[in-house]
Amino acid sequence: MKKLIAPALLAVLALTGCSATATPAPSATAPAPPALTIAKPTEAQKTALMADLAKVNPQFEGTRTLISASLACRTILKGEPEQAQIMMAQDRFSRSADKPVTEADAKRIIEIIKTNGFCVKA
Predict the structure, then answer these.
(1) Distance in angstroms (rounded) separating the CA atoms of residues 113 and 64
(2) Domain enclosing residue 73, as ranges
(3) HSE-CB of 116 using CA atoms within 13 angstroms
């Protein structure tokens, strides 16, 4: 009889553990930060930006340049390191010109975007 009681107790304990409802584990990941959006620039801000960028390179004009400026603005507002901002500006603005943008010109571009009122959070 003792030989039957021990296995029966183990079976009851094992089945009792199976019938419990599982509690979900707390999430280990932090919630994603909200998407960064920039304020839609006014026509006057766009015009001023394009005029300032044309002083760096007259080929900086049109939609592609505005998109590049918006992307550069995002890196600024995200607080990316200055070198990352410069590299991004060199890459993006070189696509709007017939020659690569120098580091010095990229610094000027970033400074223009930071200071002319174009780059603000929405």
Answers:
(1) 15
(2) 43-115
(3) 22
Structural element, H or E, at residue 106: helix 103-115
| 7 found inside a domain | no
pTM: 0.69
Residue of 64, 57, 44 lying closest to 109 (CA atoms): 57
Report yes or no on 50 lying in a domain: yes
Write the pLDDT tens digit of every residue in 21-43. Answer: 555 555 556 565 566 788 888 99
Q: Which residues contact 78 (CB under 8 A, 6 or more apart)?
A: 36
- Nearest Cα neighbor of 96 from 36, 40, 51, 54 is 54
Please state the domain count of the chain: 1
8, part of any domain: no
